[in-house]
Amino acid sequence: MRRTSGGVVDAARFLTERRGRSIHPESLRAKLRALKGEEISLSMADLLTEWMEEKEGGRAYARDWMLAHAAQNGLAADVVPDNEASPQDLIKDIQAKAMQIGALTGGVLGTTAESLADNIVSPTERDKVVALLRELRTRTHNLERGLLLAVDKEEAR
Q1: Is the pLDDT of residue 97 over 80?
Q2: pLDDT given at position 17
Q3: Which segments of 1-122 does DSSP mark as H helices, in order?
């Protein structure tokens, strides 16, 4: 939230407008820092995420808190971009995503094999494999979303 223009003052104003209940910037600051037993509610965190997404450049980091919270609790989470395919191109998009997943899977296997060839995994090698794994998860989530949309559209007929 520190990177977001307007900071805590603007966030407090946004929350006051959206919730219909006033919150002072210092009260919000205390909740964000979990001072004196104060905590931010999940619904307030969702609103703050929306506020950050509306700011310039905010979409790039607005959900980072969710990813961090998931990791702290032993969960894995990924931000999945919206499916950009039009309804008539959905089947072609599903086929393309399946092929991309195959290629990425090969990339993960090849890069992992190269990384392990000397029985040492360097930070650079680790970062390459992790980046490929994250991309693979995102593509898999996109494929899943596309399949669900295709079935939903078919059932709606």
Answers
A1: yes
A2: 94
A3: 7-19, 25-33, 42-54, 64-72, 90-116
